[in-house]
Amino acid sequence: MRRFFTSLLFVIFAVTSAVSNENDLKPNIKEFTLENGLRLVVIPDRRAPVVTHMAWYKVGSADDPQGRSGLAHFFEHLMFKETNTYKNGEFSASVSAIGGQENAFTSWDYTAYYQKVAPSALADMMKFEADRMQNLVVSEELFLPERDVILEERSGRVDRSPSAILSEFSRAALHVNHPYAIPIIGWEHEIANLQIEDAVRFYKKWYQPWNAIIVVAGDVEPQETLELAKATYGKLAATQEPVERKWTKSPRPVVAQTLEYKDERVTQPSWQRTFRAPSYLIAEKGEAEALDLLSTIMGGSASSRFQKEIVLKQKLATAAGAFYQGSSRDMSSFGFYGVPRADTKLEDVSKAIEEQVDLLLKDGVTQEELDRARQAYLKTIIYSQDSQVTLARIFGSVLANGGSIEDFTSWPERLRKVTIEDVNKVARKYLDRNRSITSRLLPKEG
Amino acid sequence: MRRFFTSLLFVIFAVTSAVSNENDLKPNIKEFTLENGLRLVVIPDRRAPVVTHMAWYKVGSADDPQGRSGLAHFFEHLMFKETNTYKNGEFSASVSAIGGQENAFTSWDYTAYYQKVAPSALADMMKFEADRMQNLVVSEELFLPERDVILEERSGRVDRSPSAILSEFSRAALHVNHPYAIPIIGWEHEIANLQIEDAVRFYKKWYQPWNAIIVVAGDVEPQETLELAKATYGKLAATQEPVERKWTKSPRPVVAQTLEYKDERVTQPSWQRTFRAPSYLIAEKGEAEALDLLSTIMGGSASSRFQKEIVLKQKLATAAGAFYQGSSRDMSSFGFYGVPRADTKLEDVSKAIEEQVDLLLKDGVTQEELDRARQAYLKTIIYSQDSQVTLARIFGSVLANGGSIEDFTSWPERLRKVTIEDVNKVARKYLDRNRSITSRLLPKEG
Questions:
Q1: Is residue B377 within 8 Å of B9, Cβ to Cβ?
Q2: B97 to each of A174, B87, B102, how far by Cα in Å?
Q3: Helix, strand or coil for residue A171?
Q4: Which chain B residues have a beta carbon less than 8 Å from that of A259?
Q5: Per the residue annotation, which of A22, A31, A35, A76 is the catalytic one?
Q6: What are the φ and ψ backbone dihedral angles of B111, each rounded to 5 degrees?
Q7: Contact at 8 Å (CB) between A351 and A324?
Q8: What distance in Å separates residue B138's CA from the closest CA in chain A?
Q9: Which of A19, B17, B148, B432 measures 20 to 30 Å from B290, CA to CA?
Q10: N-terminal to C-terminal alpha carbon distance within chain B
Q11: Nearest C-alpha neighbor of A110 from the set A70, A143, A63
């Protein structure tokens, strides 16, 4: 997540700098809303004769009905099957036939589908995508085998990965009573119980034009793209009224929790501590920007405190870092992690990290560190060569989460305003060990 | 909870021994089901001219809708207010006027209301109780002030009690993804958002004759009691079809969690470790009985291992005990706790308990210990002087949770069959430290 969010920044800079000077960061993005409520965002990008077409739905794992975890993600599978119009797999075959790429992804906040094709194929992609927004077939012959496929996917991704197993429980501890506590892929016993009726209800509830955002990035004209969208998506009538996304909230955290998981398959112990922290969308003014720079200062670059002190000088860890997941729709997290060397113990690394955090809370960061962290962002921007898919992904995720394009175009300016006082303030406000979640991954002793 | 469950046993013995010999433990309890689905249980108890009348509803905090925690408990308040028939508080005033007692209680599994009055008042109690099962008034003038009362109740019970604060989070950790994770009284922010419509919907859904069990214990004739019930409860028609109680399940536990809460108000540190363990209702044959005796052996009496070793011999703790909550409808818990002396540390006590548990897992219990634990139950039975309210409470809770009277009357016999192998087996099966939840309550350092 963090890596993704960081890349968001870079792409924006890349895009905006292509169309404007440093002080005018408004890219040439066009937004439209069709009569049925569907939103269209066109991002001209003429670097190559290619277009990325993404359909975003404002529904994710956090919208899974209680006891039905994995349902949002299930559509990542079903949407590639049959519709009333097209045969099972026909859309994918069509993308493949023209040498295109396609994929889909689900987060707690949203679900998205995309194709990267030649601009001449865009009309066709819209035709297929609009079709599966409303005409998906969910039959027993398709649903039940796919449920087994997903159980196998879970088994591979989670059950065979000790760190993923621990991570599921750490997340549940961090997000008590909040739907971010559930795994995107779903709890195994709940996936196994998903029923066709659940999928049909979910599809009808959320796969509606008013809940979709189409992002088209590439070698296209906005007005022409709008006409194509009107001719395809524009023909869909909502079959249900818009519904509100209702998520439960976590109680105020007051307890420090440590989770320890031992597994004979662990060859590399690791330590992680997370704190609840607000995302960009819900943070008080300037806090998220300060958290991003704080994570860079502590553990986000080759010249970070952790890297210099713990990895290079004290030689305790092979890796030690910090992360801030700023891109969520709701309460998110800030964290530290460390991986001991073969000749050091987990406790040596966790103690060293704690010392560094204590030092931070006591003395704060320096102006030099802050400037360096900010510069690190800028340098990365200059050299970043981001893909069109990433480009479309940025704006899709921001808009799907309720943000605006302006939230992002003003971001560099807001980052420039962050002071050392801002950074020290968020550190002291959010990095309270007595309300943190610590994870210890260890090999199982004989 | 444990104390209650233990008392269940004692009362059954007391009751049954009054009506039968030791080998025939079938008490003279009569069960009826009215045409509208309401169940009536009559437990003759002629020790005094008094009757306990209880209305049990098979709905509790675990049935609170997602994000609406505290709703089941809210009725403990609303049910004493106004109905379409009677003024606000009229029922209570009537109980009080005849020198009766009344109360109500909510668990995760059920909600119950009772009055203890002279037998001549039973008809009147049934009239009032049947009335509020269907005619409750939930108006804004009643609902909103009561919500504030409940928030104040929560503040007093939880926010002012460091151990209660920690306990809420420990429970959430033990019951990840299960509705037992929510506090009975509700999370503060969710109580504050409860709406009248939530209450009305909940009331109509669950306060129905088919979801009620009336328990009458006391100086009454079963047949006469049935006639009274028919004349009151029997007149209620269900206004909704029976609904199924659907609870989400926890994922398989694999992680050890430690929760630490520091609060300047803590004068007495304490340590607790809980393990998921099946209740009587869902355990494999003989397991729950063995868990009950195991808890007695380890920490349930003056001659328990913890008491002898940790409190008396090593003089590390002022208290150290074990508990098993066998009476839940779903997955429950087994646990250990310890309270250090003023001159010892929390770690000294927790280490001593861990040593005792390691010893148990290694060597098991002895036949002598098992026999002594079983005898402890029997002795307590003989001397127990249980109240009629407890008597009614036993059978109400068992039946509300889906058990049968026979489940309980056969219990002594099942306890007699427990072997040391049974006890050692459940100890090794359920007391796995790597899947336990540990709570540490500590004073906050200056």
A1: yes
A2: 52, 15, 12
A3: helix
A4: 255-258
A5: A76
A6: -130, 140
A7: no
A8: 25
A9: B17
A10: 35
A11: A63
B261 and A249 in contact by Cβ < 8 A?
A: no
**C-alpha span between B78 and B88 (Å, rounded):** 10
Determine whether the interchain pair A165/B255 forms a contact, defined as Cβ–Cβ distance below 8 Å. yes
Separation of CA B373 from chain center: 22
> In the A/B pair of chains, how many CB contacts fall below 8 A?
92
Question: Is residue A249 less than 8 Å (CB to CB) from chain B?
Answer: yes
Contacts of A261 in chain B (CB under 8 A): 254-256, 434
DSSP A248-266: --PPPP--EEEEEEEETT-
Give the minimum alpha-carbon distance from B247 to chain A in angstroms, rounded to a whole number: 8
| Paired tokens of A59 | 């529904």
Phi/psi at A320 (5° precision): -155, 125
Using the Cβ of A173 and the Cβ atoms of chain B, whether some distance falls under 8 Å is answered with: yes
Nearest chain B alpha carbon to A439: B257
Domains of chain B from N-terminus onward: 37-235 (3.30.830.10), 257-443 (3.30.830.10)
Q: Residue length, chain A?
A: 446
The structure tokens 């049934």 sit at B126
Nearest neighbour of B254 by CB, restricted to A66, A165, A181:
A165
B255/A187 touch (CB, cutoff 8 Å), yes or no: no
N-terminal to C-terminal alpha carbon distance within chain A:
35
pTM: 0.91
B172 neighbourhood in chain A, CB within 8 Å: 176-177
Using a CB–CB cutoff of 8 Å, tell me whether A244 touches chain B.
no
Say how many residues make up chain B.
446
A347 is catalytic: no
Per-residue pLDDT of chain B (446 residues; tens, 9 = 90+): 233 333 344 334 334 433 334 433 346 899 999 999 999 999 998 889 999 999 999 999 999 999 999 999 999 999 999 999 999 999 999 999 999 999 999 999 999 999 999 999 999 999 999 999 999 999 999 999 999 999 999 999 999 999 999 999 999 999 999 999 999 999 999 999 999 999 999 999 999 999 999 999 999 999 999 999 999 999 999 999 999 999 999 999 999 999 999 999 999 999 999 999 999 999 999 999 999 999 999 998 888 999 999 999 999 999 999 999 999 999 999 999 999 999 999 999 999 999 999 999 999 999 999 999 998 876 664 443 467 888 788 889 999 999 998 887 788 888 899 999 999 999 999 999 999 999 999 999 86
Of A376, A360, A379, which Cα lies nearest the Cα of A423? A360
Phi/psi at A260 (5° precision) = -125, 130
Q: Which of A69, A159, A177 to mutate to test the interface with B (most CBs of B within 10 A)?
A: A177
- Give, to the nearest 10 degrees, the angle between helix B140-154 and helix B71-78: 120
d(CA B21, CA B23): 6
Nearest CA in chain A to B173: A173
- Structure tokens that stand for B320 in this block: 């150290």
| Binary contact (B258, A262; C-beta < 8 A) | no
Task: Report which of A77, A76, A81, A124 is spatially closest to residue A100, judged by C-alpha positions.
Answer: A124
Of A187, A251, A434, the CB nearest to B189: A251
Longest dimension (CA), chain B: 67
**Hey, are the CB atoms on B251 and A434 less than 8 Å from each other?**
no
Structural contact between residues B191 and B151, judged by C-beta atoms closer than 8 angstroms: yes
The nearest CA of chain A is from the CA of B266 a distance in Å of 14
DSSP state of B49: S
Q: Which residues of A touch B177 (CB under 8 A)?
A: 69, 172, 181-182, 187
ipTM of the complex: 0.89
DSSP B387-442: -HHHHHHHHHHHHHTT--HHHHHTHHHHHHT--HHHHHHHHHHH--GGG-EEEEEE
Q: Where are the beta strands (DSSP E) in B107-190?
A: 111-117
Nearest CA in chain A to B187: A251
